[in-house]
Specification:
Glycerol-3-phosphate (1)-acyltransferase, 7-stranded mixed sheet, Rossmann fold, alpha/beta, membrane, transferase, Phospholipid/glycerol acyltransferase domain-containing protein, 538 residues, 5-stranded parallel sheet
Amino acid sequence: MAFAMVILKFSNWVLYQLLANSCYKAASKMRNYCFLISNPSLKSSQQPSLFPSVAKCSLEGRGSDTLVCDIQGTLLRSQSFFPYFMLVAFEGGSIVRALALLLSCPILFLLDYELKLRVMIFISFCGLRLKDMESISRAVLPKFYLENLNLQAYEVLASAGSRVVFTSVPRVMVEEFLNEYLGVSNVLGSELHAVGQYYTGLLSGSGLLVKHRAFREYFGDKKPDIGLGSLSLHDHLFISLCKEAYVVHKEDSKISCTNTFMRREKYPKPVIFHDGRLAFFPTPFATLCMFMWIPLGIILAIFRLLAGIYLPYKLAILLGTWSGVHLEVRGSDPSRSIHKKGVLYVCSHRTLLDPVFLSTSLGKPLTAVTYSLSKMSEFISPMKTVRLTRDRKQDGDTMQRLLSEGDLVVCPEGTTCREPYLLRFSSLFAELADEIVPVAINTHVSMFYGTTASGLKCLDPIFFLMNPRPSYYVEILPMVPRELTCAGGISSFEVANYIQRQLADALGFECTTLTRRDKYMMLAGNEGVVHDHKRPKP
């Protein structure tokens, strides 16, 4: 019955809203565009704002003030919300949903703001699970919001003691970010209709939020101290109800980019963990380029993978470089130990391919120990991999045995980190070897991330190798002096912390005390363990 009602409401909306109203509005819009093309002087001229620029707002003595604003076009530098809907469609839905949203761009261009927003909401959210959207709003969207944050608008927002945001975009897309990163006390946005655990893609009975109406309902006769808005008429109505009103000009962003662009060190809260596959801001043009690249990218990934598995090291590097893989190696392999025991290579962890690229760079076979490696990754690995059990004594015995057989690679962070941070190092490796070689590893991608916390980890190498020009940086540091190891009377924790600092300094990263468990609890709501589902022996 509920499904039938959804279909009925959607049919009514398509017939009376999308088809009837949009035809008239599209014709008016095209007429305006033709007029602007024939009169280019009018296109550049802009109606002066009734309110001063946000750059003129004083930041002193605002601790007791109440500020209201919108996130779209005000707190964010980009005017369009399409890239964020694309992130929801691709990361929460599927590549098919993302393609459908991209194909709707010509239609979106002709629609007015309200209909455009309704269409993007329907394509992005229809059939999407509520828990998937919660994960995206927590683990994917904040990184892109922070990278697009308007510094001037944020500084005014941060100076106010109380902050309220009114927006027409779905509340579930922005509330997590505004609360956690910007300290916004209340977020009012458009509410989405859901049946059970799934969104229908339609708005709730209240429809799209109208900011000045929601403002009056929320504050009544009270006037907030500061209002921030864009140059749109709706925002002028909205912020005119405040004691002071300021607008964000597009020209300010273009002329003084340094005043509006927020550098990483100024982020209100550091982004150490984030999830999702897309490594770029998915504007319509960038997304079109991605879909055009994917067929060739899949072929390239298979070619690069097969070359790394079956070909000799030097030939694999040659063909990999020819196909676009950039490998930069610094340092040299230390002299062979006089003891029978192998060398322990301690690496920073960026992707599952770290041990493979180290082995290729050194031109010799290595053994890698890892936690929670998927069966697929283990099957396609060109080097020997051994799973650890998280039992300290058993894992220690396993690593001791492997070191007696040859050289060993370990990533003591226990999981990957995309940002310039190093997680806490496990100290187990320091108890097992006196000859330790730190290896600083970093990667760069332009299209797809080669790691995931909630997706299919078996596809991590494929996604990394699908990038047009994936880059690996491997720096082999000098062997740790014997007096700075456990053999020199130093505790294993001090050794682990020392090596973590050495790698952080080499890469320009920052050390943290966060662990694998912290990462997966934040991004995926679990401890990140790949369980080996084997039948118990009778």
